[in-house]
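Design a sequence for this backbone.
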């Protein structure tokens, strides 16, 4: 059982750095590697303006290439740390450590990673956290394996004991378990007091079975930022409207409605006839800034303004993410933040 003094911090709390895994020719990015490497360089550059970037690389050759591209992007080398380690894919939000904070130590939760319900090969990704812990890059951090399938993108924490998630995703991972059973396990493992569930909400082109970080995000002061759809002719319209109604009905720990910020809807983006999941909710919070997905759409600027209003006092940096959604995720999916004090 998790000691109750441990808790899952909110993303807007102080951070030590952000984890990335560099794409290479043996990953699913191979066909469009140059394009996605430019996006990774832009993402790493935006993070490095505010905190260190820890870059996982598969081998020495990948490290050399990543280092050269990051230097070309003008990144201060002192802000980057390279970690040679095996991985199947680059979606560290889901294969990276979910870190709990204690009074003077940390707990690296290592949930079972199944490649999003067995859709993809994931054996190396499932060993990633164990490998990172063995490399002694963390300070006062206990590695804790949890034999239960969960991805970091499936949960949102307000840092004060509330977890937000979706029934669609966790029911797919654990069809034999009830909502009450899963709520108890999440509270136990994450040091939380309650779990809020959304029944509705999905995006075409999303293979995670409706991860919460593509749909609705906690923000400070009992705020939720969510992806809306204002196009009544779009197949997402009814589903996201139903999700909005669920969010309206949610209550804070003090019994009050949440402050809601609706994000605009990007025009449909297709690749060889397949619709891609262009969610503005998939943004990343770092120290002093918010990194916001940009898709080359007129709604990009409005999305950035809305996210900025939900995270006052932080600068907003747009990161081009059109190349990322080809592989069904955006910038939050690629990254995993680490809480302040954890790095050795």
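Sequence:
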């Amino acid at each position: 059982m998790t000691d109750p003094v441990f808790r899952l911090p909110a993303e807007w709390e102080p951070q030590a750095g952000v984890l990335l895994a560099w794409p290479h020719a043996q990953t699913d990015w191979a066909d469009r590697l140059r394009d996605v490497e430019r996006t990774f360089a832009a993402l790493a550059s935006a993070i490095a303006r505010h905190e260190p970037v820890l870059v996982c690389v598969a081998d020495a050759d990948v490290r050399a290439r990543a280092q050269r591209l990051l230097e070309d992007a003008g990144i201060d080398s002192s802000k980057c740390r390279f970690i040679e380690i095996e991985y199947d894919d680059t979606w560290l939000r889901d294969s990276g450590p979910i870190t709990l904070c204690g009074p003077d130590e940390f707990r690296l939760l290592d949930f079972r990673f199944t490649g999003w319900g067995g859709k993809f090969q994931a054996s190396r990704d499932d060993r990633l956290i164990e490998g990172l812990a063995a490399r002694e890059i963390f300070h006062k951090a206990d590695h804790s394996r949890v034999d239960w399938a969960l991805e970091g993108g499936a949960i949102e924490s307000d840092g004060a004991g509330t977890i937000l998630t979706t029934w669609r995703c966790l029911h797919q991972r654990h069809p034999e378990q009830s909502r009450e059973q899963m709520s108890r396990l999440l509270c136990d493992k994450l040091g939380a007091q309650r779990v809020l569930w959304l029944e509705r909400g999905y995006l075409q082109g999303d293979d995670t079975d409706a991860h919460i970080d593509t749909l609705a995000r906690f923000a400070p002061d009992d705020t939720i930022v969510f992806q809306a759809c204002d196009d009544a002719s779009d197949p997402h319209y009814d589903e996201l409207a139903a999700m909005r109604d669920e969010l309206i009905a949610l209550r804070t720990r003090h019994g009050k409605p949440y402050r809601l910020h609706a994000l605009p809807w990007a025009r449909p983006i297709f690749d060889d006839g397949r619709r891609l999941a262009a969610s503005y909710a998939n943004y990343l919070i770092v120290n002093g800034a918010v990194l916001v997905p940009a898709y080359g759409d007129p709604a990009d600027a409005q999305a950035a303004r809305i996210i900025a209003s939900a995270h006052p006092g932080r600068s907003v940096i747009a990161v081009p993410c059109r190349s990322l959604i080809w592989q069904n995720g955006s910038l939050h999916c690629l990254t995993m933040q680490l809480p302040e004090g954890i790095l050795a």
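The chain has one domain: 15-339.
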